Each structure stands twice: as structure tokens, then as C-alpha cells.
Amino acid sequence: MDQLLHVFVTVAQKENFTRAAEELHMTQPAVSQYIQTLERNIGTKLLERSNKYVRLNKAGEIVFHHAAEILGIYTRMQCLVDDLMNKASGNIRIGASYTYGEYVLPHIIAYLREKYPLIKPAITIANTKEVEELVMAHQLDIGIVEGEFKNEKLYMEPFAEDKMFIVVSASHHLANQKEIELSELGSEIWIVREMGSGTREATEKMFDKYQFYPSDIMEFGSTQIIKEAVEAGLGITLLSHWTIRKEVSLGTLKVLNINGLPFSRSFSLIKQATPFNTKAAEVFLDVLRSNVVLQKLNSELN
Length: 302
Description:
alpha/beta; D-Maltodextrin-Binding Protein, domain 2; 12 helices; two-stranded antiparallel sheet; 302 residues; 3 domains
């Protein structure tokens, strides 16, 4: 059954029998036979076929969702059994929200590959909510998100602190003031991330904590675009110190000295609530918890 599901998922992802056959190193008639067998077993058609594409129908969407989850569980089971006799090696699927994923995780992966070259990481970058959903669906082994949340089906563990600062362009009229009250920023344009983002959640928490609600807010879907907008003088923002290291060192962004800031939050790891992990996952978790890479990066900053 797992081979039937594997072929079906590949066809659904490629939306084409020929491309799926190439991916699976099978003939196209063999792929078609697998799909027909699965459809007979399920008791209904799962795909809409035309000369140009192959797409899931409603029943196919249900089967695809569960097939992807089943294959993820099956792969994990096989890895756990294989690990009984082998050292840390194999694939590990890691997901991270944008701040950690784009600015810290590359350094973690470089360290991991240097110390454990047989581990093959696959990386997915998405916002916090999407990472959580992928871990829930067994499509990621470990997720790294900003902040903390409650989910009874997942294990969550804060493992590092992240400090967040309000930044402005170097030419902003407040850029060189020694001390500023947050209330002075009420008339500024605030540039924030989209809902579902950990950075947006932290910004909202800061607003609530200080009972400060700016009237002019612009929402962007990328930290890089936010930094570019702030550098251009469009507005101000709250960002992790990891995301602004280069711009601050180059002098294109300035950190405001605000009473009560920096605002702190946690980086947290999430995974399935099970004591069983592959050796590759255990090694990666140990690297995260040790904070050895973060300490190295911090020392370079200082």
C-alpha cells in the first residue's frame, strides 16, 4: 500500500503522469496501473485527467492529505529502526519561521554539516502558523518558531532568547536621539509583518504590553522588504536583532533607545509529542539546545 500511496502523491504533486514516471523511474503505463489499483481499493476516482494536466478531485484531496501524512509516519518508522544499528545519518526535515530560518538556521546547518556530514537536512521556511501545521501533518520532523504557543498534539520547548528592537532609517529625525519614550512614536508609520508571523505576534504583544496602538500601520509579507522600506524612510518597525545585524553595522538602520526595550521573546522548537526520535533528529536537537552556534555568532557581534 505504501508504494501505491507514494506513486499517487508523486502524480498529484507533479500534476502529470509523464513527469511522475520520470521522478519515480517507472514507465508511464506502470504509473497509470498503480493509480487505477489505488482507485479500485479506495472505491472511487481520485484524479481529473485531461490532455494538459492531472488534478485532484474532492476525494483525491482527502486521500492526498492522509497519504502524505501516512508516508511521513512510515518514513519516520523506518528511520527509527535503521538507527538502531547506524550512527547519526540520513534525512531530517526541518522547518523554521522566517527570522530564525533566514538569519540563524543557515549557520546551524553549516555547523551540523561540518560535524555530522552524513545527516542530510531539507529546509522549509514559512511563517509560524504554517510551520506548526506541517509538523502536525508529519511533513516536518522539527519546527523552529518564534514565541510560544499551546498545542496538545505537539511538544514545544523554548531553547533560546531573541531580543527585538525598534529601528529607523539613518536619516530619520529620531535616529540620533539618546532616549525616546514609546509614546513619541504614535504618529509614525509602523511597518509590520502579516498575521500568522511570529514577528507580527511579538509586535502585537509589545503594543498590548505598553498600551500603545499606532494609527498608521502598513503590513508587508517579508522581513527583507520591511528592512528595505525602513531604510528608504517609509516608516519604523520592530525586528529581531538577528535580522538587522548587517544593516546596523553598515549604518543604514539605527536602533532607537526606547525605555523598556529591547522586547524579548523565545525561539522554540516543536515536534511530535513522542519520545522516539531518529538519531539525526536527536543530534539536531542537541545542537539547538546547546546554543553553541548562537554563542559563536554573539561573540562575533561583540
